[in-house]
User: Fold this.
Amino acid sequence: FRTPEEAIEKANNTVYGLSAGVWTDKGSRILEMVSRLKAGVVWANTFNRFDPTSPFGGYKDSGFGREGGMHGLHAYVRLEDR
Assistant:
């Protein structure tokens, strides 16, 4: 990409949005890019790293629900009133 704006435009110009990554040595650029990317997960200087206590799942037309964290547990439990 020639500019950060071009990278953002290309990354967001899709019906999918499961994840994205930003690679830079400037913390301010990471924060700027993360706020503009339309993705469920945005990694900074790494990829495919997850905290199992955080919910993960689809964004836009990617995926079908959530896993991990409290959001992910709801698919596996049935709450009962006592």
User: Anything to note?
Assistant: Residues 4-73 form one domain.
